[in-house]
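A quick aside before the break. I want you to see a complete sequence-to-structure record at least once, exactly as it would be stored in a machine-readable document. Don't worry about memorizing anything.
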Amino acid sequence: MSDRPARIAIVGAGPAGIYVADVLMKSETPVSIDLYERQPAPFGLIRYGVAPDHPRI
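That is the input. The structure line, written in tokens, reads:
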């Protein structure tokens, strides 16, 4: 087993991508995450308050 962290690529920095990255970073497993987004800003529609009923916003 290697001492290096697991390398994870997440495609899409919308709500799902951001929450997955958050959960992985808070886990006890050492990870290295690359987050890819084609839009100029992350967070997708939650950035503009489209999903205000979501408990994590």
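Two observations worth writing down. Residues 15-26 form the longest helix (12 residues). The chain has one domain: 6-48. We'll return to this after the break.
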